[in-house]
Design goal:
733 residues; alpha+beta; elongated; 22 helices; Fructose-1,6-Bisphosphatase, Chain A, domain 1; D-Maltodextrin-Binding Protein, domain 2; Kinase-like_dom_sf; six-stranded antiparallel sheet; 18% strand
Length: 733
């Protein structure tokens, strides 16, 4: 926290809130004066591409606010809707009264007591919210909004309504402060102002009435779609964002929706704390709060819309509906209608009469949005589709480096189903893609950030014998079923050299999400520090072994040999062994048929070129039980090898001994272990493993203590073999 200089007043929330209260009223007073004076409003349009008016009242209001606040705290950043304006005329030079709230009883949250750091504080000002309504003389929708944001989140707000009451009315407060309504008397006598603490309204949806919804009168297809789903009893049309949010705060409406990209941070910064003061919330259409960062978002747009409610259950319900609406849209924003599905998914072979999302089937992940779609046709039949949607602007933000890697992975899965399914499905069981859609750029070329895959939903089949189930922590028989699947996949591709060549060009040239080429160089430097933390956290589990020099140096040893391990697996492995690998072949990405327990894989976004041992090592080290590994690891390796050799000998055959395969398996185990010791073991403890035990998407090597200890042993032993191998190679060179 930075201390104020000797000639600068300390910045405290109590005084800052009082100052904003005071200058908000001064701003409202000049707005009333402009109306009383009549005549020309001095209106200009601020935008070239839309109607965005500004009047003399907007300008004079902001000049009063900014000048008064900077006179007290010149070092505080202020972002006003009207930008930087000239200094005010003498009649608009006003003083902020820091004692104006002395008769109001309120507390400041403990974490915000004392002096605030001005470097982390921004004031967001809308000097006249509802300018269009003001020009239309609908004065009851006009307000002055002053929001106080600290560390990019709003902590307090002031909303002054100049035309409500004889001398105006102000709502103010914040979380931990409370919500207050102040009815003003004469401007020159603050003691005439009556402050009343406001409670959360009792009469509201769904406890005591059907829904009353407020929205802007501006046409918006997305709002109309939401209304069709919500079926509110009453719709109230407003114009100014502030007063529409206020309708929720006062209980006049239960929900406010606005999805057009027409509001800015200054429209909501004052209102969000007032909502939070009585337990409400303001989120975007994905349930996220907005950050108030003038440097990180210089446009200040609330681009993902506004959902405002006092009830968490109402907000959650609306978010579910908005997710469904958005997922049922095509890349160009149109609805995914039955006619559209008939044409694009079934190629007009079936006439779809109805479609709807299966309840509770939507999952919004980091990498994709998925849902199940129940489709009814004229036959009549009902089919369930599994829809996987990758659209960059619908997914969580990340660094450009991560976007490049992840977008390529999304395109990989789309290309696998569109280009490789037909060439592999006769040899290995694959989930049938009904359609794969690629977005188009402005020139009609395949876009790199929008893909959608429609698959059969295999776990919705009515035939009990053909139902598919998930299995976690595989025993020997299920592991054999999965290994049989891999042998068929690897053998089928290996017998089609041209297909492997196409995979190198269209899928990942080095398969596997964990490959050194994708993430090794960036993460590897973390290995020594991550490993030392593991040694400390698992000291009792490792016992005396934890003090062995080879174990103490495990992180440095991995750094030293990681590039060699990867090179032996990818660059130096024989071309005759190059095939298509799944790249994320773990139990979470497998279904097992109920009767036969035959496996079928999904989630192909990391598939590409590599040797089969990569998939085998990943499966065994992430998904197979300790009993099976302790007693049958060699047996399972021999089982896969025999199955694989049988598959390829049906073609031209290859020269590949079991010993050579086993060496590749041990190297592939180290290749995967590299991401554990450099990333996934970060902050790992026995307790964290227990907490993740039921998370089947996590590999067993960081959610099961026995598997962790096994991986440590495999790392130590495997690296020792690599070290001996490299010494021998150098001696022979």
């Amino acid at each position: 926290m930075s201390a104020a200089s000797a000639d600068m007043r300390a910045l405290t929330l109590r005084e800052l809130l009082a100052a904003c209260f005071s200058v908000g009223r001064h701003a409202g007073h000049v707005i009333r004066d402009v109306v009383k004076q009549g005549g020309d409003l001095g209106m200009v349009n601020k935008a070239d591409d839309k109607y965005d008016p500004q009047t003399v009242a907007d300008r004079r209001s902001q000049q009063r606010i900014v000048h008064a606040l900077r006179n007290v705290w010149p070092h505080v950043q202020i972002v006003g809707e009207e930008g930087e304006l000239a200094q005010p005329e003498p009649e608009d030079v006003v003083t902020a009264d820091l004692s104006v709230l002395q008769n109001a009883e309120f507390a400041i949250p403990a974490e915000l007591e004392g002096e605030l750091d001005a470097a982390h504080l921004v004031l967001w000002i809308d000097p006249l919210d509802g300018t269009k309504k003001f020009a239309e003389k609908k004065y009851d929708e006009v307000s002055v909004l002053i929001g106080i944001a600290y560390k990019q989140r709003p902590i307090a707000g002031v909303m002054h309504l100049p035309f409500i009451g004889k001398h105006g009315t102000t709502y103010w407060g914040g979380r931990g402060i409370g919500l207050f309504k102040s009815v003003h008397g004469d401007l020159n006598d603050p003691l005439q102002t009556i402050h009343e603490r406001q409670e959360r309204p009792q009469t509201r949806y769904p406890a005591s009435r059907t829904m009353i919804l407020t929205t802007s009168g501006t046409k918006c297809d997305l709002v109309n779609d939401a209304i069709n789903e919500l079926k509110p009893q009453q719709i109230q049309l407003g114009g100014a964002t502030g007063t529409m949010v206020l309708s929720v705060i006062t209980g006049e409406s239960d929900l406010f929706l606005r999805f057009r990209n027409a509001t800015k941070r200054w429209d909501i910064c004052a209102m969000e704390p007032l909502l939070e003061a009585i337990g409400g919330s303001l989120v975007d259409k994905k349930g996220r709060v907005y950050a108030y960062d003038p440097l990180g978002d210089p446009a200040f747009d609330n681009e993902h819309g506004l959902i405002v409610s006092l009830d968490a259950a109402t907000t959650s319900h609306v978010l579910d509906i908005m997710t469904k609406i958005e997922l049922l849209r095509t890349f160009d924003g149109n609805k995914m209608t039955p006619a559209w599905i008939s044409h694009h998914v079934f190629q007009d072979a079936s006439s779809v009469v109805a479609c709807d999302v299966v309840p509770k089937s939507i999952h919004l992940g980091k990498h994709s949005s998925v849902m199940k779609l129940r489709v009814e046709t004229t036959e009549p039949t009902t089919t369930t589709l599994f829809v996987k949607r990758y659209v960059k602007n619908e997914l969580p933000p990340r660094s450009e480096t991560h976007w490049r890697r992840d977008l390529f992975s999304y395109r990989t899965e789309a290309r696998f189903y569109s280009h490789f399914y037909e060439k592999l499905r006769h040899e290995v069981q694959l989930i049938k893609p009904l359609e794969v859609l690629f977005g188009k750029d402005a020139h009609g070329n395949e876009a790199t950030d929008r893909f959608m895959v429609f698959l059969e939903s295999v776990d919705e089949i009515n035939d009990t014998s053909r139902k598919y189930v998930h299995v976690d922590c595989l025993g020997v028989e299920d592991a054999k079923s999965a290994l049989t699947y891999l042998a068929k996949l690897h053998g089928a591709a290996l017998k089609q050299p041209e297909l492997v060549h196409q995979a190198a060009e269209n899928l990942w040239p080095s398969g596997g999400w964990w490959s050194y080429a994708k993430r090794g160089r960036q993460e590897l430097e973390n290995a020594p520090s991550v490993w030392m933390s593991v040694l400390r956290s698992f000291a009792s589990e490792l016992g005396d072994a934890g003090s062995k020099a080879s174990l103490v140096d495990l992180g440095e040893r991995m750094v030293q040999h990681a590039a060699y391990i990867s090179s032996e697996l990818f660059e130096k492995s024989p071309t005759s062994l190059q095939t298509i690998v799944h790249g994320d072949f773990k139990s979470a990405n497998l279904f097992f048929e109920n009767a036969s327990h035959e496996a079928v894989a999904f989630d192909w976004q990391w598939c590409g070129v590599g040797i089969g041992a990569l998939d085998v090592a990943y499966l065994l080290n992430t998904s197979v039980s300790m009993d099976a590994l302790a007693n049958d690891e060699e047996h399972l390796l021999r089982f896969y090898y025999d199955q694989f050799i049988h598959q390829v000998q049906r073609g031209e055959g290859i020269e590949y001994s079991f010993e050579a395969f086993k060496r590749h398996y041990e190297l592939a185990t180290l290749e995967y272990a590299r991401v554990l010791i450099s990333n996934f073991w970060k902050n790992m403890t026995p307790s964290s493993c227990a907490a993740k035990a039921a998370n089947t998407n996590c590999g067993l090597g960081y959610r099961s203590v026995p598997h962790v200890l096994r991986m440590i042993r495999k790392l130590d032993e495997g690296l020792r073999v690599v070290e001996d191998e490299r010494v021998s190679n150098e001696a022979q060179a």
